[in-house]
Design a protein that fits this description.
about 180 residues, mainly alpha, 7 helices, about 80% helix, elongated
Length: about 180
């Protein structure tokens, strides 16, 4: 049992480095979109690769496991840990962005959120609560982003683990 936990943690760290590197690259388009709005579409397109990468890493983990099986809750734990470690890597570029490159980024995002809420005719009490919740520090912003990434990892893992356990592709042999 302890060996399986260590195996999951070790694999999640390694795969999290790959997914985090992808998110790091993807976040460069978020930074660039402040200057060139067309880059926002590239970032939106790249979002669709995250579930594919999770599926790839789940299948790969299944293939390296001794019994070539992926239990449901093992896959879910792996996905959550994978997204956690990737979120740590992405947090590095987000901190650089919101603290040094564009300190006004968070306030601009907050203003856009409030404008969207106004256009949807939210009640005054909801608008007041939104205004209170939208004023936060860069550290809080990064922490919220990390936690939302982990939550997304949970949801995606719950959906993709059954699929990954059924796919029988030996990824090691794809390079031959």
């Amino acid at each position: 049992m302890q060996k399986e936990k260590n195996n999951i943690l070790s694999y999640a760290m390694q795969a999290g480095f790959g997914l985090g590197g992808f998110w790091f690259f993807k976040y460069l388009f978020v930074i660039g979109a402040t200057q060139y709005s067309a880059l926002e579409y590239v970032n939106s397109f790249l979002i669709f690769f995250t579930p594919l990468l999770l599926l790839f890493y789940l299948i790969r983990f299944k293939n390296v496991s001794p019994d070539n099986k992926l239990k449901y809750w093992t896959g879910v734990r792996l996905g959550i840990l994978l997204f956690f470690f990737a979120a740590i890597i992405e947090a590095a570029i987000v901190i650089v962005h919101v603290v040094w490159l564009d300190p006004s980024y968070i306030s601009v995002v907050n203003e856009q959120t409030i404008e969207l809420a106004k256009s949807l005719n939210f009640s005054e009490s909801m608008m007041d609560e939104l205004k209170k919740q939208s004023s936060f520090s860069p550290t809080t912003y990064v922490f919220r982003q990390m936690m939302s990434n982990v939550a997304i990892g949970l949801v995606l893992s719950l959906m993709l683990t059954p699929l990954a356990s059924r796919i029988n592709i030996d990824i090691k042999n794809l390079n031959k």
